[in-house]
Input
Amino acid sequence: MTVNEIQDEIIEEFSVFDDWMDKYSLLIETGNALSALEEHYKTQNNLIEGCQSRVWLQADLTDGKVIFQADSDALIVKGIIALLIRVLSGREPQEILDADLYFIDAIGLKEHLSPTRSNGLLAMVKQMRLYALAFKSLNA
Output
């Protein structure tokens, strides 16, 4: 599936609900389904700066594709990073850099997050793109 096909799938899943409490529940379920991040990856180096909650992001380049793993100590934030991983993990670095993450606005996520969580969301996206940029420059 392409980045946009996965985003469209997420938009469809969230469109089933009108109430934001239900959407938050879906976000929490999504986060709970995220594979556990191994403890040795929960380091200061993997903590994302700018998040109110603690979010660890591990990135590896495997066969030319960036593989992300993450965890958070906050349920909703864990759901957000799980959605980002679903869209961006397993992609070539350039795909990640070129991705227009329109699903964030389409599901109403940005407008239903506190300002600090919105900043955290931007910090997560920025960090994922920085990893992609670093991996791309390694292969250049």
The helical segments are 3-15, 20-32, 75-88, 93-98, 103-106, 115-139. The beta strands are 55-62, 65-72. The domain at 3-139 is CATH 3.90.1010.10 (Sufe protein. Chain: A). Residues 115-139 form the longest helix (25 residues).
